């Protein structure tokens, strides 16, 4: 009996120890915040799925559409360059999201992401097409007038042929045909990327910078995702404050732009003689990036006028510089606007008002230091959304945005299948229209 | 030492016991499937948030907008009726979702729901306005030509005054004004519910039956949620099978309808002399519901032609009867279509084809028993989506659908705040357009 009892006790202790160990690992070593994007600023965080369970299939495209584009880009600049097959490096570029997303999906450890990569397309919710469409557009330093068949590096790279080739390849794929492309994701961050084939892929989720060159039946806030450009100047590592930020307003960039960007020349005219404003004409170069870094890190406000299209990488340079953006771009669409209240981090001025002589500087000078510090604090909190290299940054947020499209994708797939032939007076569209009381419609 | 040792052991056992108990409760009594809507059919289930964390504030409307509507309805039919204040019962009605959702939100135990009710509006993501708008529309048996001020039950109930009163009340609320109503949820299931004020509340998420009486800037698949009607006949409790289902096709309902419903009379003409088809003119009554129950439970297929608007409760009667719906309603929109592939549970025939003599019956007779059983099996699996009284049914699914709108709601709120005045050539809308290759557009 005594022996039996002493036998039972250690066994009980052993069992309890195992259960306790299981409890310990299960309870305390389970991540308590499985979604590292959670923060007070991410107002959507409360309903983020903590399980990364939207399944994405990464198309194994022919190499020419991915690494091959980088190789073509580098060879077009230096035909003698030697590129190790296993160490292809994407060149520095404001449209490098295509590289970041591709690199992310092929990574082993993707903890914290809203999507998981699946290797069997049967398991996939969404299909990612990793063509480097923005780099492809600029692979040739100057787009060739005609293909030079006698070139000793073979035929000159043709972006248009690449676009056509991609869609021809895709149209052979069973998963493309199955749902008319609704569940496919394309990246075309340069406003001209994929322009030749956009009508053939427009059912897909497009990852874009803005809708400047896209019609309303090709892309929209409802179907697509607005991406930030990669910032091209260094992040500001210091604390918030106005010390060291001696200039009021800073801008450096091309003075002359097409379309909405025409406002730039007018802004130069009203601002270039203001003593606390630094406004300079400059084009992309290492030296101008150095000067822009210095300017943005030492100014309170940074001007962001429209470019050829409403968006430009300068906005994101300003954000990571904690330089409060002053946005003069009436048609701009902004990344992750469900999660970020841009009114807290930027100042919006319509073009007509902004070009009134003296108006902009007068308005900015009136903003108190306390208010400036508030803006800076908010900028600091959202900064990571614009850092592609932050493990808790842009890449994860882009995937989260993509997952939010899935319910409408599934709806459109199911609805398309059962729609009958019918006479329609208007296109069959479901829309979300902004509050017109704030706009000044001419219709 | 011996004493110490014997003291340590029980203490260790005690500690381990507590840890083990904690482990047990934490590990095994935590729901392993926190979202009871998960099923192989719910293709979206994998990314449902397992935490019911979208926060909804239920407006404490003046009583006249909720229980008061029921009282007015009952008193208009029997002025002598006595209604206990704490036991107001909503009358049987195909538009009873307004009652189900209200009753659900005021329940204590809301386990399994995608939304939690919060009592402080500051905490809310969304605001639910529980006006019984559909019952209000029919509170008077016949809408009065003029208000009878001499009536001894006070003035005659006026739905229009109620609608106006609701919006006036709402427009005084701070949370309504704060975001221009984008984060408010309204139920207006009868196609005419809230018709008088719809333009003032159209920013909100509307819970509707279809878009038959709504313009594209008032409601859409993107912004709003399509609800099923409450089925009005009893569910079929038996197993799948064709035994006992001797008729091919069944329909009972009003032969004459306006607009899209004109197809009904044409369908009667081509079907009424077919021997295995039961097609009867009938209006709502207890007796006709009994006959419809019997007919739908003993037929293989159930016809669902458009009514005055594209939807009708007959579709949901058919589904819960496991009677395969034959849908002849070219503009129909269907509830929960992201989660349900209706092509698997119903047959869609365009109106032009359906009214060709002999066509419909010939097509249905060709469908094999095996295929019929497949349809029935799928119907059985989705049936719970159409059962308002199922704890794992319609009510939870409606809330899940509402939560899916939140990212776009937040986006529109933030975007509206920072939009500048601008000249627009077209309305400022973001759209999702269906694949036009399957439609026959006339534009």
Automatic annotation (TrEMBL), chains A, B:
It is found in: Golgi apparatus membrane. InterPro entries: Exostosin, Exostosin_GT47. GO terms for molecular function: glycosyltransferase activity. The chain crosses the membrane at residues 12-32. Residues 51-363 form the Exostosin GT47 domain. It is a single-pass type II membrane protein. Keywords: Glycosyltransferase, Golgi apparatus, Membrane, Signal-anchor, Transferase, Transmembrane, Transmembrane helix. The keyword Phosphoprotein does not apply. One of its GO terms (cellular component) is Golgi membrane. Belongs to the glycosyltransferase 47 family. This is Exostosin GT47 domain-containing protein. It comes from Papaver nudicaule. The lineage of its organism: Eukaryota, Viridiplantae, Streptophyta, Embryophyta, Tracheophyta.
């Amino acid at each position: 009996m005594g022996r039996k009892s002493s036998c039972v006790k250690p066994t009980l202790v052993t069992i309890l120890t195992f259960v306790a160990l299981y409890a310990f690992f299960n309870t305390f070593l389970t991540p308590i915040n499985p979604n590292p994007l959670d923060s007070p600023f991410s107002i959507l965080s409360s309903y983020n799925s903590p399980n990364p369970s939207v399944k994405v299939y990464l198309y194994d495209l022919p190499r020419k559409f991915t690494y091959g584009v980088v190789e073509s880009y580098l060879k077009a600049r230096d035909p003698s360059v030697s590129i190790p097959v296993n160490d292809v490096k994407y060149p520095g570029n404001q449209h490098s999201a295509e590289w970041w997303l591709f690199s992310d999906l092929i990574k082993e450890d993707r903890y914290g992401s809203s999507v998981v990569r699946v290797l069997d397309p049967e398991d996939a919710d969404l299909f990612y097409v990793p063509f480097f469409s923005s780099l492809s557009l600029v692979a040739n330093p100057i787009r060739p007038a005609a293909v030079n068949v006698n070139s000793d590096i073979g035929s000159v790279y043709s972006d248009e042929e690449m676009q056509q080739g991609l869609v021809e390849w895709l149209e052979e794929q069973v998963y493309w045909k199955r749902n008319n492309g609704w569940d496919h994701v394309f990246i075309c961050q340069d406003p001209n990327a994929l322009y030749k084939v956009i009508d053939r892929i427009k059912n897909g989720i497009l990852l874009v910078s803005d809708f400047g060159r896209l019609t309303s039946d090709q892309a929209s806030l409802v179907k697509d995702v607005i991406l930030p450009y990669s910032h091209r100047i260094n992040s500001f590592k210091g604390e918030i404050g106005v010390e060291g930020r001696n200039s009021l307003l800073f801008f450096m960039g091309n003075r002359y732009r097409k379309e909405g960007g025409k406002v730039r020349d007018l802004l130069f005219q009203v601002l270039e003689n203001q003593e606390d404003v630094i406004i300079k004409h400059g084009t992309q170069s290492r030296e101008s990036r150095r000067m822009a870094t210095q300017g943005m890190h030492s100014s309170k406000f940074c001007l962001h006028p429209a470019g050829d299209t409403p968006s430009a990488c300068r906005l994101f340079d300003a954000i990571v510089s904690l330089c409060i953006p002053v946005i003069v771009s009436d048609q701009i669409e902004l990344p992750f606007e469900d999660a970020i209240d841009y009114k807290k981090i930027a100042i919006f001025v319509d073009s007509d008002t902004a070009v009134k002589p003296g108006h902009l500087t007068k308005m900015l000078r009136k903003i108190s230091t306390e208010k400036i510090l508030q803006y800076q604090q908010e900028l600091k909190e959202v900064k990571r959304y614009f850092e592609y290299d932050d493990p808790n940054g842009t890449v994860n947020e882009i995937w989260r945005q993509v997952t939010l499209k899935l319910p409408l994708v599934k709806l459109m797939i199911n609805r398309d299948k059962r729609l009958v032939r019918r006479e329609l007076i208007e296109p069959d569209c479901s829309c979300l229209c902004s509050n017109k009381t704030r706009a000044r419609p001419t219709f």
